Amino acid sequence: GAGGLRGWRTPQPSSPRCRTSGKRRADQLIEEEAPLMVKSLSRQASGSQVFVLSVVNEARARSLGGQVPRNPANAQLPSFPPRDAAAFRRGKEDLRSLNFDTLAFSRDDLSHLVLEIFLELDLVSRLGLDLANLETFVMGVRAHMFDNPYHNWAHVADATQAVYALGLKSGLIARLNDIERFALIVSVLCHDLEHPGYSNMDLVQHKMYKEEVYQHTTLEGHHAVKACNLLADDTIGLLRHLNSQDFVHLHETVTKNILATDMGRHKEYVDVVNGLIAQGPEPEVPKQMSMELLIKCADTSNVVRPMHVAKKWAVRVTDEFFKQGDAEAHHGFPVTAICNRDTQSRVGIQKGFIDFVIGPFFRNMGQVFPSLNGDLERVWQSRKEWDSMDDDSLCLRLVR
Fold first, then answer.
1. In the chain, is it the N or the C terminus that has fewer CB atoms within a 10 Å radius of its CB?
2. In the chain, where do the E strands start and end?
3. What's the pTM?
């Protein structure tokens, strides 16, 4: 879901390459990857059925005192790193602001700053979590993020910080209970687990199918299953103190939030926001929908960061697009238009994404959440600056 630009020119449902259209069948989810999960809820969304997964099996087994099968995701994880005090202080200064520059920190620094979000929300003590287990969970997420140009550990840390800042400023975090706050942070942290760096599902399956890794109709389905597996992993033991009711609520919320980052569903959320605006000033937004909307904003928040930060992310996301286009050409697939390095420009992609996709969405979100209007309107300030750049000047400014 992150980056979102590839969803700008998504193939139409009639296209054989459009794997997100039509009914999303239950048997297309890798049940064997998630032995604790069953289908518990489905709802109609833009002509597709989105299956929301939960751990009802585990909750039922717990309530009956039975043994729960486990699917350990991490035999060995690196230890939580030592903290760089100076970098941590610098990061704390902007941790609640969209001025935060994730790319100015190391992977280890980001591990500590992500952990700090949980600590600032007092979730360890309020939920009875073990701090060492939470540290292991953070390292588990980090270990499941691949070394892609864009969809990597830095991106999920960036989106996590953004949802924290937006959640505080909008007042959403104050409305949520402890389980929901935990779910909000966990879902954005886990929303791109094992992202392969490609959004073309034909290509993903062609390259990865022999390993039986990606067999979902969307990447977001894979991310959601992996997130729930990681949360339930007994080698981490993060949630062993939660009761069954909280356990089920957490997993359902996390799954809905992650599925919301699918840019194939963007029109669905555009319609939701338009409906909320039609209700009048400051409409009442249900908590679950508020989480989904803010996670969508956080996932695409690069465009409202300070311009010197936004430019770095623009280069990274287009690096990943062009890498996909090269792979599509190499394997004989039609090259996705926005991923064709011979016909697309980095700056042009960014301007198109702002003009036609995320700019109008952020403007409307500012009406639904007036306290966020100033931050979200930054997208139009930066849009003016993109007019003064071309690809050569963009990359040149980054290396200076």
1. C
2. 38-45, 48-54
3. 0.83
